[in-house]
Amino acid sequence: MQVDLLILQANVYNSYFKRFTKGNVAVLDGRFLYIGQRGAESFEAREVIDAKGRYMIPGLVDIHLHIESTMVTPETFSFGLIQNGVTTIVPEPHEMANVFGISGIREMIRASQNCIVDMFYAIPSSVPATSMETTGGAVEIEDIDELLRSERIICLGEIMNYVDVITDPDCKTNRILEHICSHYPDLVIEGHCPKLLDLDLHRVIFAGVDSDHTHQTLEGMEARMAAGMFIEIQEKSMTEEVMSYLVTNDVSELFCFVTDDVMTDSLYHRGHLNHIVKKAIQMGMEPEKAIYAATFTPARRMKLLDRGAIAPNKVADFMLLSDLRELAIDEVYKNGKKVYDKNEAYRQQVVPNQFPAHFYQSVQLSPLTEEDFKVRMDADAADGRYTARVMLVKDGSTFTEEHHAPVDIRGGELCWQESGYGLIAVFERYGRNGNRGYGLIGGDTIKRGAVATTYSHDNHNLLVVGHNPQDMVMAANQVIRNQGGFCVVDNGEVLANLHLPVGGILTEEPLEKTAKEVEELRKAMLSLGYRHYNPIMSISTHSLPVSPALKLTDLGLIDVNQGKVVPLLVQ
Fold it and tell me: What's the count of helices (H) and strands (E) in the chain, helices before strands?
């Protein structure tokens, strides 16, 4: 029988038994035809590979991630994924949607069309994530209908505004959920519900949200699984107690591994979903179970029933490993064709101007001055000492804490430079209303200098953190001139400058170059005293009003748990 590819003497992973079996594999028309003991006597192949006992596993499937978190285009992202064995992803472009609305989603999908990696998109469901921020675009029910009719959409992206789901029956998020459940009952709905337990958790599930990818505790994860939620484990949830639970309990059908957000330098140096699989093995999970959680269960969760396994009629996405426990990738195949070989040159073809012209002119802000970093109080705020809310940054999490501290007001201005804390400011950058919000910041953040960025989840307004107005102005104006990105300044000197001109959040530069620049950015932030495992992700979520506990948007300080804007002064 004529076939395209014949792989001999492989240790083939069987997803249905979660074990390896020695045998041969035949591929025809981009799909697996046969797995068993028959070989050259039964198949006449155009190409024959002697696996020589190497391990053959399915291509990895990541069902929850945001390409924009890596700050590169879909093509660059695909280039980075393939060498790490990731062949299918479900990206949710809610960052680009927050900047450009439905056109941002369409352009991300269009930019993915020629990628080697299969990209099945999630519709951003929470744009904006709340009503307590200004964004450049919004996604409404009619937009969801239009995208489902015209694009390759596989699920409704994460429902982020869980507070309103519980407290406001008539909110936009609940209207979207009701519409999806009524008109598209088979569409997968992704969730985002940190810390919820008991009745609140069950009410979110009752509304149709049946997965959670946020930071898991043992108590929260078990409660979610017991209620039928599917759990997507990202690296920050891989604590000893969580991993021990996953290893020792029969819950393999209830979870998978995902990446969610991966920085560029991490993708370049450590890998992607393969890094998480390898880490799970190092933490005591059997390789067969770890592979299952990065191939079969995620594919089944998203109803991608044609992949995630090496079996007849499944898409022939696979890799050959020389070391199973180290997940050492020798070769990667997509649709039965080799797309990566560790012994062959692997170079990126950079494509410029992949997006419409206006995507490169999205920061509508005039240059700032030191006056913009004076915090003027209400007219009735007399001179004196007051108690203020302070956002405390915490290493190990993107969550913050609300702290109260004494501050002075003189001449109608907050004396923030005398408070012992830094200033955090957010400037609306779409030219819609000119809003700006101010707050105090402390904890594990910078201790001097300034950092400015338009890469600020999810609204992507201009966010500036600093300890003196001069550095803050310099950093902010560099980002404005660049039409987006990051800038780190200390004592009038630019320490790092990352240019992100596509929507203020992406670059078209090659992966290797961007990874080096992100690495320099990370080092610069740490040099200013930032104490965090991921300072870039930490600072970029300071304006995320669905991530506990105290955040800042252009409307002001947000008490996330209460879901409302709160004043800077407590009294």
Answer: 16, 29
